[in-house]
Amino acid sequence: MAPVRGPWTPLVGLAAIGVLVAYALVAALPRTTHGFAAYYTAARLLLAGELDARVYDDQWFGAQVRQQTQSGVIEIFGPNPPTMALAAAPLAAFDHRTARTIWILGSLALLALGAWSLVRLIESGEARGAVLIALLLLSPSVFANLLDGQIYLSLFALLVAVSLALLKKYDVIAGVLLGIALATKTSGAPLLLLLIVLRRWRAAGAAVITVGALAGAVWVTSGSAIWGRYPAYVAEFIARPASTVTAYQTTRGFLKHVCPGCTPLSADALMVGIVVVTAVLIWKREVLDQLALAATVTLSILILPIAEDTQFVLLGVPLALWMSVENVSRAMLLAVGILLIVPSAWTIHAFATGWSSLLAYPRLYAAWLLWFGIAVSLYANAHAMRSAIVSARGVSR
């Protein structure tokens, strides 16, 4: 991992952290919002032995949230997996306000650590590192996570750790961390496919075992009915008319919004298609490097059936991994960066109806553009590798 050269990157990083701390103290910590309220309530129910299939009854769980937080917050548990209840379990002994404060400040620390680790991968210039650290720390998605106490800042750090561990071939550690991510928010599922495609069996095995262990821990206290209800609830949630609102920056939601006559199978076929294309490109190269990881983590966001602004903080991981590779299109990087920092109020909430709603999906466009750019890099890199092998064989003869 290359050291960061010059003063500007750390100075920009420290300034950004100062802004985030101030925002947390002034705007986030004094409030009681949805987001963390769901994690906290689920954890308290789990430890009390009361987490069961009723958590997928929105009215019942909403009443539990208001009781546990002593507030009027409206929140649901789904479409999260039952194992999400483990996320805030270490904080369940505290009152809600104390637990939320620890959660938000801890999330901020993990974000800073993950962002700095990614910036250290960048070798080509101080300016690029400074721009990247600012983008990772000051995007609207970061502020949205802080305001609501969402989990995606921690997941960002977790995916950074998984990626770096895989690059360093610490496969068991990477697998355990990936298993935690999968159990918490089913985030990073394509990474498991990547490990299988490239036959990194120790990492894949560790991930599966970790997911199984965490699921088993919930099963012991909650029974089997909750696991049967979970997939049914997800299907029902996706089918709701509300899933087409522009706040959900997903391919499925986009197609349903701009093309009401399109069937859900259209989005499903598209998702399967990009997964297959990515898998083939990676399989042909047979290398687990920054490009392979960048493509796979991008898929983890693109294939989500439900994704709001908060989830797109995870795009910072593949963006940084892609930037660490030589000969990346600056124009495409700039376009992705702009789409990630456009305030939601300018697009998502301003263009909700008619053809103008095509302007309401900046985060989704950023994800697609990032995936396309990385896919092009994968193809070009594979072609260059094959040419080098052919040339080497010619010389040896």
Total helical elements: 18
Distance between the termini: 37 Å
Assembly type of the chains comes to: single chain
Major sheet details? none
Task: Explain the layout of strands and helices.
Elements: H1 8-28, H2 36-47, H3 58-69, H4 96-119, H5 126-138, H6 140-148, H7 152-167, H8 171-185, H9 189-197, H10 201-222, H11 225-239, H12 251-258, H13 264-285, H14 290-302, H15 316-323, H16 330-341, H17 344-347, H18 362-396
Short descriptors:
397 residues; mainly alpha; 18 helices; 0% strand
Notes on the structure:
- The protein is mainly α and 397 residues long.
- The chain has one domain (8-387).
- The chain has 18 helices and no strands.
- The model has no long low-confidence stretch (mean pLDDT 92).
In short:
With 397 residues, the protein is mainly alpha-helical.
